[in-house]
Amino acid sequence: MQKNIFVAFLTTIILLLAVGCHRCDNCLHGGSCDGNGGCSCVDPWSGRNCDTSCVLGLEGYNCATPSKVKFFGVWNCTSKDPLGNSQSYQITFSDTTNAVKMVMQNFNNKGYKVVCTLTGKEKFDVQEQFSTGGLRATVSGNAILRGGALTIYITEDGTTYFGTAKLQ
Questions:
Q1: Is the pTM of this model over 0.70?
Q2: 138-146 and 149-156: which strand pairing?
Q3: 88, 93, 103, 115: which is deepest, by most CB within 10 A?
Q4: Inside any domain, residue 127
Q5: Which residues, at least 6 apart from 117, have a Cβ–Cβ distance to it below 8 Å?
Q6: Both 100 and 151 in a single domain?
Q7: What is the pLDDT of residues 99-116, one digit of tens each?
Q8: How far apart are alpha carbons 134 and 63 in whole angstroms?
């Protein structure tokens, strides 16, 4: 009986040494424990221990994941104008051939498209541009994704709107 317990204990120790374990206290460059034994890294750091510097537009282990893919799809959005009037609708994000650009469509339920430029793993700017399709307006702004919620500030022809969105 004691021999079986010793063999089980020794096998467990050998497996732990062979497989290894990752501890959150190994997060570098301002990274923090993500609650699952891994590291949540700040821009531009990535990798298992936040020890890899990714170029803008890439993230994840070995910088192999395009940052913009987390935005792709249909989002349920609610926006408010400066007077506090709100409306709910859907916006979409789609790809472009540029690694740091994507297209947002239908902000404020007006059907227009604007090009968004990543400025970090979870944020983007809408550099001032004339929208295409739908309402024609001069549009600029920015957004940040935190905890699955997208916060968007868009200025249309001088009027700033605040929106929040969740991926469907």
A1: yes
A2: antiparallel
A3: 93
A4: yes
A5: 100, 101, 124, 125, 126, 127
A6: yes
A7: 999 999 999 999 999 999
A8: 36
